[in-house]
Design goal:
The protein is mostly helical and 207 residues long. 78% of the residues lie in helices and 0% in strands.
Length: 207
């Protein structure tokens, strides 16, 4: 179904639907992420052009980035190091599940290795966004909150790296160039953020 709405009115409806309604419904212990997803399905039904809107796509990207940013700010590296072996065990088990599922999918449906692994990733990768957004409403203590957050973020990062390898492995030059770009980003972004914090933030405390 298609409604004739101006973009301005659509943005107002989206902001209200995504920031106000989920908080109201959260009183019934329904996670905001679930409510937002259902609202997205409903809005897409009534106004399908929304999926192609550049502003909405940008807001979606910023939302995901902000979610992981604040999750990372909550994590304490010393605590992660102390429980590092437990995280490694979960990562190894997760990778085993993905590889076993990938080979099963490949043998049953006669798909290529890359497609089979992507299917396995879709089946076994937890939705970290849903998990992190639901932590406030499930009544866990600080220790449980830490481990849920750490394991889900670690699983998501490993899944993203594995997906990167699978997608880029179709071409060796493409894989090498993409890996080099990612390595440079990992190397230089912390330096840039440190320079920003040392040289710019003191002169712009409210930035």
């Amino acid at each position: 179904m298609n409604l004739n709405l101006s973009k301005e009115l659509l943005y107002v409806i989206l902001i209200f639907a995504l920031f106000v309604l989920p908080r109201i419904i959260q009183r019934f212990r329904i996670p905001t992420a679930v409510t937002s997803m259902l609202l997205g399905i409903a809005i897409n039904h009534w106004y399908p052009q929304i999926a192609e809107d550049a502003t909405v796509n940008l807001l979606a990207t910023l939302g995901i980035v902000a979610l992981f940013l604040f999750a990372g700010l909550d994590l304490k590296l010393n605590d992660v190091k102390s429980g590092g072996w437990i995280l490694v065990q979960h990562i190894i088990l997760g990778l085993l599940n993905i590889f076993i599922a990938g080979f099963i999918v490949m043998s049953m449906f006669k798909l290529s290795m890359s497609i089979s692994m992507l299917v396995a990733l879709a089946l076994f990768t937890p939705s970290t966004g849903f998990i992190l957004d639901s932590l406030r409403s499930i009544g866990v203590n600080e220790t449980e909150r830490f481990w849920i957050k750490s394991i889900s973020i670690a699983a998501e990062i490993v899944a993203l790296l594995l997906m990167f390898i699978i997608i880029q492995s179709t071409s060796l030059p493409k894989f090498v160039s993409s890996t080099l770009i990612m390595a440079l980003l990992i190397l230089f972004l912390p330096i840039l953020f440190k320079l920003f914090a040392e040289k710019i933030v003191p002169y712009a405390p409210n930035s």
